[in-house]
Description:
The complex is a heterodimer. Chain A is α/β, with parallel strands linked by helices. Chain A is built from 22 helices and 27 strands. In chain A, strand 19 and strand 20 (463-468) form a beta hairpin. The N and C termini of chain A lie far apart (67 Å). Chains A and B meet through strand 2 of A and helix 5 and helix 7 of B.
Amino acid sequence: MEPGIGELDTFPKLLMMHARIRGARPAIREKDLGIWQTWTWHEFAEEVRALACGLAEQGFKRGDHLALVSDNRPRLYAAMCAAQCLGGVPVPLYQDAVAAEMGFPIQNAEISHAFAEDQEQVDKLLEILPQCPTLRHIYYDDPRGMRHYAEGVLASYESLRDRGRAAYRRDPAFLESEIAKGRGEDAAAMLFTSGTTATPKGVVLTHHALIDRARAAAELERLDDRDVALAYLPPAWVGQFIFSLAQPFVTGYCICCPESPETVMTDMREIGPTYYFAPPRVLEALLTQVSIRMEDASRVKRWLYARFMAIAQRVGGALLDGKPVGALDRLLYRLGDLVVYGPLRNVLGMSRVRVAYTAGEAIGPDLFKFYRSIGINLKQLYGSTETSVFVCVQPDGQVKPDTVGPAVRGVELKFTPERELLIRSPGLFKEYYKNPQATLEAKDAEGWFHTGDAGYVDADGHLKIIDRVKDVGRLSDGTLFAPKYLENKLKFFPYVKEAVCFGQARDTVCAFVNIDMEAVGNWAERRNLAYSGFTDLALRDEVYELVRGCVERVNADLAQDPELANSQIHRFLILHKDLDPDDEELTRTRKVRRGFIAEKYAALVEALYSGRKDVHIEAQVRYEDGRTGTFSADLKIRDARTFASAAARKAA
Amino acid sequence: MTVPQPIAGAQRVGEVVLAVENVSLSFGGVKALVEVSFDVREHEVRAIIGPNGAGKSSMLNVLNGVYHAQKGTIRLRQGAAWREFHDMDSHEAAALGIARTFQNIALFKGMTVLDNIMTGRNLKMRCNFLQQALWAGPAKKEELAHRRAAEEIIDFLEIQHIRKTPVGRLPYGLQKRVELGRALAAEPTLLLLDEPMAGMNLEEKQDMCRFVLDVNDHYGTTIVLIEHDMGVVMDISDRVVVLDYGRRIADGTPDEVRSNQAVIDAYLGVAH
């Protein structure tokens, strides 16, 4: 008799179920020597069984951790599941990390067994071996270049598997009983959060949490075993773990591993995934490629593209959302689909995409609309490693560019008075490994996870994330002021490179704008506007008008939002120079250092709030060779139109 | 799923497989090579160096039958037997397992990387033209086997992402890699490389060094290379022969050659 779905509470049990009921269906594909090779669920399960027995022979036991350093490969996922079969915990590490960064996780989890993709990764592990005395076994996948290694800790993947295969033949009952011992509350994976601010923390996720979230999202999107996904992001990242292990194991869909990182685009076109995830920067890079190639196209094609994209912009999103659209527009869109959108989706490898997600950072509304307008069902989601990803997802037909959608089944949201988002969900992490202090800070006694993100739920029940809690402030009248949210909105315009907003404990919001030299320079050239350099261009009245347009569009947008309507930007100035990490105005990762800038340009901030029309500045600049010089200019200050709040209008 | 297996057994430098004895070559009054002798051992990386016009490329051309030496003999070991030849042409050389790359890249610019590498399999194809054109008889099976061999080389040289790109559109360093791939496709026992790193930047050179050593290690191919970059030569070769004005002036390990007075004089010049 088939066990009920509730009894399948671990990934190995799910795998064995798929091997029984859809053994001949594809589980995982990889392009090898130019040809897509397939493992069926049956073959996948066989491989996992052999590997698990091999690991057991090597002394791997319940509760042990297996480090994995590899790009997306079928064997990587087989090794992960093999560890889970024995009650062990896979710990995928970022494959592009330097050796020193791998030391901490391995020491922290006292890892004894590791899986490495190739010689490069083996070299890194061997380099840190002296600092990691617990590490006793390293298994490598690709034998190339490994012949001259004599280290006793090394063994090939094949040797491990063959040893395990023999052991399984001798005693198949051992593994079956090990799998049966697994419980939903056991740890299924440990994923290290990136340690940009502090030492990395190992987030422990249980089978139950991952399976529950994977299933909730799969039900929402009606994923089944006919879906196909491309596994191309680092396996150490929680999203990749969900999309290429948790969800396929829940629904039975097939994942595909590209041949190499350079061939992802081609491989995607060949595979035609139906389920796709991409962070905004990948989507942006794709769009840039399309734009560049369109500019090189013939005049007829450029004309067609411009005309039909205008139609798509107007009605494409509405059609995707199932909203009413006029018959003529419908006809035009269908024509456009034939000559432009369809071929374009094909070139992007997105012809068959049913569901596409983006997350990780704020996505520009134009970028977002572009993909939706050509018929790709791109949606946003909200989540993190600690929540097994799925907290909020935009459901079909309810997609808004600036929210991340309503809570997924099973998730409770609430807010602290400081507007910090708290989450309670079956998908929450168990703990930070060996770090009870941090666990306690992040997850309180009632089980609420403190995200550190500030936001609110809008009238439609959609979650809107505005900023990190520590950056959110208040105007003097007590209304919400989220500087990064405003700055991001400005930065979505190509003409704005950076923006800095002020308003903490003041009546109104004012902004510095740093124009994008390339974009504004091009714009000026097309208008035959002569300029001698950055400062000259930045001080032009025409440029001020251009930027004012951007600011006013942001204001109009803010007016729609009752929570943020009061933080419209009243006055702005354009900076005479680029904000620069060398001048300490930006961090090395190009984040605005708002406090430092407010201090350094205190005179400009005062001028913004004093009602003056211009301000003289004398500043020190540091040249690239390290010399410094002084520089002076008269900056103009302009007012921007603000709009009555939508809520206020309604009341009136 | 199948994965290519490396050729078993560690290869180390073995017996002499190629002996060049008193070879002379002249074009009219120009003496390109004068009584040059040296040998090449199995599995070794053998470098030929020398200043401009020293006769390096001429030597390579004699080895694969582009030029015919007027005097002297070249002997090639095949299994246990030695074969001596005076006037083989380049087809014969290729059939004997000698492949080469050129100083100026000689690829088919309009063809894809894959097709260029497939041309390297030409001598291995047994079906006639008609069978191939009609996809008849064993032609299909043969094509599949050759395609697999070509794909293994693509994997080996890490050029999957340009498999279907016309060679003419590739940067110089990659074209050099493709040319190496085409030479490897012939499964040579002796590989002649004419300045494989000329015109490359440091990173491309490092990559190429790695590939040359990998070929030597993985396939056990004996390699004879001409190179100008002394650092490269000294790093990767087992033995070096130095030519100057068509004569051999030194022969030995990189260290021996480096400290040889005649070599220093030839490179730096001497007061006359």
